[in-house]
Amino acid sequence: MEFGTTEEVEVIMKNRSNSYKGDILNIVYSLDLSCNNLRNEIPYEIGDLNGIVALNLSHNHLIGPIPRTLSNLTQIESLDLSYNKLGGEIPSELSILYSLEVFTVAHNNLSGKTPEMTAQFSTFSNSSYEGNPFLCGPPLSRLCSSNTESTNTSATTSIGVNGDDGIDMTAFFASFAASYVVIFLGFAAVLYVNPYW
Question: What parts of the sequence cross the membrane (predicted)?
Fold first, then answer.
């Protein structure tokens, strides 16, 4: 699509808004699909958009894992996947995106270890990952352990697949049964102490 000199487009990239007008629009490659009520998984074919500079899929209802094919976006400078329902681990392949300046996967259901704090990933703060209770590792304060990672991965998988909004049904039934036993024993103790009731 060729743009003329009169068209003007507002592009939000790298957490700031810019207006572009004229011939520059023919070389700005940005895809902003935020706040569109998108559902299902991110298509792996999105990794074929290798000339894209900014990709914003935030504030949707996207589920499933982050596609490893996003590592093909070698020109990308801004990647926003926040406020979705994405699950699984953050692909380690994303660490080869050396042009990446803005990265956020905040407020999803991601689990496991954050990407290694090398190259551009050493510049991303806690805010890039916040709102993912099963993520661990720097820059987050939650440390990873082998038990934590495997437990959190299975818990996140069950949340994402079953859609039960974070309720661990095994723990729920166990606590229900324990409460029932305690109430029964308490009632029996009262009747033992005061047999006239």
Answer: 171-193
Positions of E strands within 53-108 = 54-56, 61-64, 78-80, 85-88, 102-104
Domain presence at residue 133: yes
Using a 10 angstrom Cβ sphere, with 0-12 exposed, 13-18 middle and 19 or more buried, the burial of residue 65 is middle
The residues with which 40 forms a beta bridge, in sequence order, are: 62
**Structural domain count, the chain:** 2
**Is residue 148 in a domain?**
yes
Find how far residue 138's CA is from the centre of its chain. 16
CB 23 within 8 A of CB 5: yes
Q: Which domain holds residue 173?
A: 167-197
Q: Which residue has the tokens 């209770």?
A: 133
- Confidence bin at 1 (pLDDT 50/70/90): very low
Q: Nearest 5°: phi and psi at 72?
A: -80, -10
Is there a single domain that holds both residue 26 and residue 117? yes
pLDDT, one tens digit per residue, over 122-168 is 899 999 999 999 999 889 888 888 654 444 444 444 444 444 455 67
Helices and strands of the chain, counted as H and E runs = 2, 11
Q: How far is CA 99 from the centre of its chain?
A: 21
